[in-house]
Amino acid sequence: MVGVLVVLLCFAFGCRNKAEKAELEKLRTQVKVEAQNKAIANREWEAWIKEDFETFKEVVAPEYAWYFPSGSTKARSREEAIETMKMIHNDVADVTFSIEEMFAVGNRVIARYIRYIMRGVQQREWKGIPATGSKVEGSGMLIFRIENGKVVDIREEFDMVGFMQQLGMELRPREVKK
């Protein structure tokens, strides 16, 4: 009787241990994938900062879509993103970018940036705003979706109102027609 009890206990603990091991392995795999996805998102970010168009094309999928703002129904393509990169670097000559926080959950990577902080001096006209010579700083958030080792899309939010106010724009209510 004691032998049967020992066998049953060993079997029960052995199965439990196998289940725990399987769960632990599943978590290890998830952590590894999320770390890889963060590295891919970071590589895309670094390519953006350095205007490294070849690396940018390597790390993003050909069907890449950039939704800015995130709820936009029309995405910018990989080529349009490159043109935007060039414009930002041209318009704000000493621009710097930094990621302040980065989290990964499954195939999504969330980054809070200060490309925000976009720290730089507005030296040229930008979107109809004359050059101010002012240092500007903006922040935002990116959500990268990664599939098969490539960034497939990004949804971005940026504090455009705060950014525009630093450039001297005023926010005021519309005049009501009477």
Instruction: Catalogue the unreliable spans.
Output: 4-9
What structural class is derived from the secondary structure elements? alpha+beta
Major beta sheet summary: 6 strands, mixed
Strand content: 25-35%
CATH architecture: Roll
Return the domain count.
1
CATH uppermost class: Alpha Beta
CATH fold description: Nuclear Transport Factor 2, Chain: A
Shape: elongated
Radius of gyration: 24 Å
Distance between the termini: 95 Å
How many strands?
6
Number of helices: 4
**Helicity range of the residues?**
40-55%
Average predicted local confidence, pLDDT: 83
The ordered H/E elements are HHEHEEEEEH
Architecture overview:
With 178 residues, the chain is an alpha+beta fold. It has one domain (2-166): Nuclear Transport Factor 2, Chain: A, CATH 3.10.450. The protein has helices at residues 2-50, 53-59, 78-91, 160-166; strands at residues 60-67, 96-105, 108-121, 135-136, 140-147, 150-158. Strands 1, 2, 3, 4, 5 and 6 form a six-stranded mixed β-sheet that branches. α1 (2-50) packs antiparallel against α2. The model is unreliable at 4-9 (pLDDT under 50).
